[in-house]
Amino acid sequence: MLYDVIGVLQDVLKMQMGGGGRKSCVNIALRDIEGNMIEVALRGDYCKQFMNYNTHGKMVGPTVIVLTHAWCKINTVSGAPSLSNAWNDSRLLLNLDHPQIDEFKASLNEVKSISAIYELRKDCFTTTIGRTKTFKASKFGWYFESCPGCKQSNKSQGENFECPCGITNVEPITKFKIELELEYDNHKGTFVFWDKDVIPYTKLNAKELRQIMKEAGEEDNPKIWPVHLVVLLNKELVFRIKYQSSYEQFSIVAILNEENLFNKFDNYLCPNEETQSEELEQSAQVSLDANHAGSPTASSSSTPAKRVATSTTVSDLMLAEELTTKQSATKAKPGRKTKHIKKE
Length: 344
Fold this sequence. Notes:
The protein is an alpha+beta fold.
């Protein structure tokens, strides 16, 4: 049977590159509003379209995927359904600008603090903020080497590089993999920085940095950290991340560099006494109503405060009006007294 499916990208499960008579294929997991998961296989040009977007797309907020006319199969062992594209009739739509997709996004709570993510106790994609504090010493150091053929990493270095695919005595590809401890609101988390996250700050790739260390007479060892990496510390950053609950680790999907975005999220996640919470709720709701005029959301029956708490997304906060400093909404309003019942 054929189905149209919509969901937010939860994980990239497996990837197979084309070549040698094989077609490209990527297996992804999609999640709906209630947290239900389904596996989707994208093959051929559909795989290339997804990988190109996932690598180069500007992912501000969740990635919502629509696949039309998808084949459905039932796993004979687990009984779970899985989907795949039909070779000619399917359409793959990635973060399409459409009112129904905007409504789907609005129902997802996509801005979370480090402490809130830990409380989930499950893998997820979300957006968070933090200040880079210190480097975390891992057993692999600040870089790793991978096979130029199959892209698999290996512990052996230099001329001794060997890969399970059988390639030997070749120059491996050197890439950054740096673990940094970030802090927000007195909670800390370990974030993994890759090439795309490090190079904009160092202006050097991992191979060039290793060469500089060799020329300076320093030992070429991934556990000896070069001074150039200090530029990554003491930065207030906004991240699109994948949280891996089994390792309690945050892997960065993208760093969002919009102006004043950190301060906006900071005011939302940890408002101070000078912030009028009602104003934040109203401005975020106005933003939602403007995008979905005439289209009630799944949470429209809730009070304004509850709607913001469950439905505020990255896009909504970026569209919200600037906050002004007024009397705190947490202070008690005058004119209403509490009655005490006198007990006999």
